[in-house]
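Q: What changes when 3,4-dihydroxyphenylalanine is included in the input?
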Amino acid sequence: MNDKILKIKQVALEAIREAKDREALRDVENEYFSRKAGVLTEMMKSIKDLSVEEKKKVGQLANETKQEIEKAIVEKNYELSEEDWANSLAVEKIDLTAPVLPHAERGHLHPVSIVQKELEEFFSSMGFIIADGPELESDYFNFSSLNIPADHPARDSQDTFYIKNHPDWVMRTHTSSLQVRSMQKYGVPLRVIMPGKCYRNEATDARHEHTFYQLEGLVINEAITMAHMKGVLEAVAKHLYGPETQVRLRPKFYPFVEPGVNGEVTCFLCDGAGCKVCKNTGWMEIFGAGMIHQSVLKEGGIDPEKYQGFAFGFGLTRLVMLKYGIEDARILQSGDLRFIKQF
Ligand code: DAH
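A: The predicted holo structure follows.
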């Protein structure tokens, strides 16, 4: 029996040494250790049937042999994997003398982002902070906190997208949804702008898109008046359209301001003479604004007896269209590279 074991060992070690790659080594391993008919498995099984005395004699040698073969396989496997690695490195080596690829094309900002960033810088220089907020908004912040209860007709012009099974959630229809949020978060005195994306369920055409951008602003402190409001709107208008630009305010109803105004600027295309873009009026409607309604201040946790403030909002998308002479609002979100590459 001992001779048989020694013979097995000799043949096995020889086969391991000769294995050319890891697959060949795996075959050898199977040949000896396979549970079904492995040479060593069979040998160990046959030892079980020997008498106790014989087992003693043979057992130790058999176990040592098995361990030795196992060890030889592990070592050979290590040696072969080192070789594999070295071979793959040789294949993958980097050729430092290869010519450089031409520069990949770099992206750039979308025109809406360009105008937004530019205005953020301008308002920052006047001491405004810049705030952001959720586009999926509660009915409360988008409507009811702004004096627009469930049955208010002002909701008709601001139909939007709703979320199934969540009747109190809306895609915000204006950045005014951040008015009460920012009052609650930052308190008074407050000077903040809130640019961002808004949504409305529109039958889209050249002037209406379901997704568009607005920029909202709030100033709240003791003794803030409409004169401050006009001053800020004028500063913005002159910044956008040049130092000669004038602003006029005409009454307009918005539920969350009292009084509310419609802010118009002299048309920068015809300098007020009248043209197609300003519909021959010489004025372009840019802002909605007004003195913040007392009940809105209260919702924001601010004492209306002590503080006043003004709010304004304008369509960033509209400003971008005017600035670049874009005639169809829908092109801005179209993803059309022929359009976007012009900026
Ligand atoms: N949220 C209004 C809209 O989308 C615009 C607006 C009007 C904002 C008056 C204001 C405001 O802050 O005071 O039509």
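Observations recorded in class: The chain has a mean pLDDT of 92.
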